[in-house]
Amino acid sequence: MSYRPPRRALTVLLPAAALLLAGCSGSGAVHVAAPTPSGSAGARCGALVKALPGTLLGQRSRPVSPASTTTAAWGDPAITLRCGVGTPGALDPASSEYDPNLAHHDAQDVNGVCWLIGQTQGGGYRFTTIVQKTYVEVNVPASYAGQQSPLGGLASAVLANDPSDPARAQFNCI
Q1: By the 8 A CB rule, do 74 and 59 touch?
Q2: How is 65-104 classified by DSSP, letter by letter?
Q3: Could you read off the pLDDT of 28-81 as tens digits, one per residue?
Q4: CB 90 within 8 A of CB 119
Q5: Exposure winner among 2, 31, 51, 121, fewest CB in 10 A?
Q6: Which residues pair with 138 in a beta bridge?
Q7: How far apart are CA 149 and CA 163, in angstroms?
Q8: Distance separating alpha carbons of residues 80 and 91, to the nearest angstrom
Q9: CA 57, CA 9: separation in Å to the nearest integer?
Q10: pLDDT tens digits, residue range 86-129?
Q11: Per-residue model confidence as pLDDT tens digits over 119-138
């Protein structure tokens, strides 16, 4: 003899199970510290975030918390974007990482956007635009290692909404 739960129990448990699974699937909001650029940088960031693709590396966009016009996220674990971040350490004279010629740092051109490449504490990567007028930072968790880079999927939105700064044209991106 097999046990069949009462129909009423199923009508209560199935929606609860669906909510639980949705919480595990990465569909909830991702906490992303929001930069607060002002003036024209803020406007560029707002336009850039609106122009970002709905999917990146096959991962759907996710809501961010706090809600912001300067941040975006995709997938689980989340690939995050922050527009209007401060000057990267390699380009900041006040930083111990200062390397104005990028002799000890890697920079790469991906579809017309020059990205400074760095590692995060968790073994992932941080990419920061260095020729555009506003610094845009993309953090990619280590679990995406070995996959295609997400930067190509972001290039058209960056180029269309954040023009290059002639004062930064000296950086050599490979």
Answers
A1: yes
A2: ES--SSEEEETTTTEEEEESPPPPGGG-TTSTT--TT-TT
A3: 899 999 999 999 999 999 999 999 999 999 999 999 999 999 999 999 999 999
A4: no
A5: 2
A6: 81, 127
A7: 22
A8: 22
A9: 40
A10: 999 999 999 999 998 899 999 999 999 999 999 998 899 999 99
A11: 998 899 999 999 999 999 99
